[in-house]
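Researcher: Next entry in the queue.
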Amino acid sequence: MGRYDGHSWVYSPKAVKVPEELKKEIEAKARHLIEILKKKHIKQPPKKLIHNHLVNIYGKWIQQRFYFCSKYICPKGYLFPWFENRFARLEYTGKRLSEKDNFQLFFIRYTGEWIKILEDKTFDQCLKEIETSPYFIP
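Model: Structure for this entry, 138 residues:
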C-alpha cells in the first residue's frame, strides 16, 4: 500500500478492520494505561474554577481507530459545561511479515492535524510511547 506524494511513491499503510478479540485485548491494556495517566494528570478541582479542569481520561473506538480522550469541565458562564479532547490515536494496520499485530500511533497538533510518530509497531510499544512521550499529555 502506498501513495504518491508528488515526487515518489511512499509507504503508507491504511487502517484495516480490527478483529473482535483484538479489540477486547486493546481495551484491556488501554484501561491499565488510562489508570496510570489518571493518577499522573487528574487533580482535585479548585473551589473556584477559573480555567478548564481535567476530570476524566478514557478510550473509545471510532470506526477502525482507538482514541485516547480527555474530558475537561469549564467554569460557569461558558457556552458548554464540558468538552472532550482526543490526544492520541491508534490505527491497526494488520499483520506483516513478523506475524505481529502492527499499529500506527498519532498525536494531535494544536492545529487539529493528526501527526504520525510511530509506524508498524506493536501495541505495547505504542502504549509505552503514550506513557513516556511529551506529545501525549491529556
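Model: The chain has one domain: 16-132.
Researcher: Noted, moving on.
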